[in-house]
Amino acid sequence: MYEGISRDQLIDKANLLKAKLSKLENKDPKRHFLSEAEMFRRLIEHSKDYIVVTKFDIKVTLQYLSPSYEEILDYKIKDHLGKSAFTLIHPEDKLKLFPMLKRYVVEKTRLIIGKEGREFTERFIFRLKAKNGEWRNIDCIVFNCKDRLFYVGRDITERLNLEQKLKDNELKFQLAASLASDIVYEWDLETNKIEWYGDIGALLGYKEKEFGKTIDMWLAAIHPEDREHVRKEVEEQRGLANKRFLEYRIKAKNGEYRCWEDRGSCIVDNDGKHIKMIGTIKDVTSRKILAQVLSVKIESLEKVNQELRSRELTIIEYKDIIKKLERDIQKLKMNQ
């Protein structure tokens, strides 16, 4: 096909074809731009993000609302275009936006007087009123471009509700632990970290977060005579679903040992893997001391009782001897 054509001629021909192709493509200068516009349009329409464009005027008029606006708030987009962006914002949150609007006024004024406007970006979390009357929390980035404001955000209502529930559950957890006079612990089997809930300082004399939060630090505080037994039980029951019960002595900050009862149970994930051990600690030191005192007293009473019984037997024997002697004396008198 290219017989009789030199290498340089072939290169020149290729370059000529490229130039013709480039010329044909440039006949429609909007072609490349439209393809990019179409790409961004599809990205925005399929995004879950809250995307809004407003014009800066007295009302801060809504000029564009992405389809996610309807999904989040359940309003029809056509019913809100041309209206104020502040209509649905919570009254308390409007105050947060005023400093940003003030900055925008300054930048727009610069444009009006012929100076170059400066771009700025702000982040806000504000509430929007949905059609059902509920307030939706939007985490939003706001930035300016010429005479418009752009808002790109995401509905974080469910996340905030979940965080609040977790916080409430933790408070209830801690309250229940304190009312029960127990320590509740959560042992992460993967990291070997332990979280303590309750007034552990009152039990052992440590300040908050001062007591060890790892298995090794916890074991180090256990009495040397109990430590190996506890370590063995912990390792054996680590992967078991059954409940655990241990008794051991643990060292307080002042050097004294407290007696603890430890009851725990494993939590498994959806795959059946043991991920955590939840348990309670009860300080039974007073009960153990009382039991020892009672044991000593009981032993003492038994000793006294034994002595009294011995004395009672001796008195009975003496009485028998006396009676026998009296009978013998009576017989002697009769014989006389």
Question: What are the salient characteristics of this protein?
Answer:
Beta-Lactamase, elongated, five-stranded antiparallel sheet, alpha+beta, 336 residues
How is this structure best described in words?
The protein is of the alpha+beta class. Among the domains are: 47-155, PAS domain (Beta-Lactamase), CATH 3.30.450; 162-283, PAS domain (Beta-Lactamase, 2-Layer Sandwich), CATH 3.30.450. The protein is 48% helix and 24% strand. It has 9 helices and 10 strands. It has helices spanning 7-25, 31-45, 68-73, 91-112, 157-179, 200-204, 215-221, 224-237, 285-335, and strands at residues 50-55, 61-65, 121-129, 135-145, 148-155, 183-188, 194-197, 244-251, 257-268, 274-283. The strands form 2 sheets. A 5-stranded antiparallel beta sheet has the order 2-1-5-4-3, sandwiched between helices. The protein has a 5-stranded antiparallel beta sheet with strand order 7-6-10-9-8, with helices on both faces. The longest helix is centred in the last third of the chain and has 51 residues, at 285-335. It is elongated, with a radius of gyration of 43 Å. The chain starts with 6 loop residues before the first helix and ends with a helix. The mean pLDDT is 77.
Count the DSSP helices. Answer: 9
Query: Proportion of β residues?
Result: 15-25%
- The CATH class of the domain at 162-283 is Alpha Beta
Tally the beta strands.
10
State the distance separating the first and last CA atoms. Answer: 172 Å
Secondary-structure element series: HHEEHHEEEHEEHHHEEEH
Q: Give the proportion of residues in helices.
A: 40-55%
Q: How does the overall form come out from the CA principal axes?
A: elongated
CATH architecture of the domain at 162-283: 2-Layer Sandwich
CATH superfamily of the domain at 162-283: PAS domain
Report the major sheet: 5 strands, antiparallel
Strand order of the largest sheet: 2-1-5-4-3
Rg on CA atoms, Å: 43 Å
